[in-house]
Amino acid sequence: MRQILGVQLSKNGTTGLKGFLKDLATSHRAKDLNGWAGVAYDAWAEDIDFCRGSFNGTSIPAAGGNNLDSPSYKIKWLQNGVPRMSTVLYSAASVGRYAALKRAEPGISDVRIVLAK
Asked: Is the full-model pTM beyond 0.90?
């Protein structure tokens, strides 16, 4: 996968790689709305360092590359009355979208966004 992403980056730049990742996310979500692949591709598309090439160690890091000031979030919900929590960490840019997708699932209630620790 690194090779495919590297080719996309070299041919189409950061914006092109972001679009490619968004397309992959859309394709995977069409099959499984909350599957790991759709979530991962969308999160990577929102990560500027990743789209600059951090997946292969060639990016020019933004803000020192640590992104320590960017909190991660998780989603908590009840599924048929049973408490659940996402195993995926979401960025601030994507957490609301995934909470909305979770709320749309049958049997899901009380969806909350919480800071990941």
From this structure: no
